[in-house]
Design brief:
The chain is mostly helical. The chain is built from 5 helices and no strands.
């Protein structure tokens, strides 16, 4: 994964939002608030690796949660991942563990990407980066 400082703001934001909307239990479109939070993270020079690692960690915890605990509500905001990012910033995360999570979650992650196109823009005429379908 590229370092935040070598990415333009648009590249960073697009990478964060594309990852976000591709996860299970997330909306198929990012909201304006999600985009603003991703911009804030870029301005804080937060490493893209930490953001993506937090999303994978959250997905793993949700996916491999004990069945008897019942299903969780869908994720409606990128802010859901803030506590996990803070956890990773405090404790760190090993890159090999992140690769392991990606591999372990690949069937779950591929399910959403193959079933619906992800859109990272807003809705309607306020769309900032139109997808091919809406261009």
């Amino acid at each position: 994964m590229a370092d935040t400082q070598s990415l333009t703001q648009r590249e960073f934001v697009d990478a964060v939002l594309q990852t976000y909307v591709s996860l299970p239990d997330t909306p198929s479109r990012a909201r304006c608030d999600d985009r603003c939070l991703a911009i804030k993270w870029h301005r804080q020079t937060m490493p893209l690796f930490q953001v993506k690692a937090a999303m994978l960690l959250a997905t793993a915890r949700r996916t491999f949660r004990e069945v008897e605990l019942g299903p969780l509500e869908p994720i409606r905001s990128l802010r859901y991942f803030v506590p996990l990012i803070e956890e990773i910033q405090r404790s760190g995360v090993d890159k090999s563990y992140v690769r392991y999570l990606q591999q372990k979650l690949s069937p779950v992650l591929e399910t959403k990407t193959s079933s619906e196109p992800a859109a990272i823009a807003g809705n309607g005429s306020r769309e900032l980066y139109p997808t091919k379908q809406s261009a």
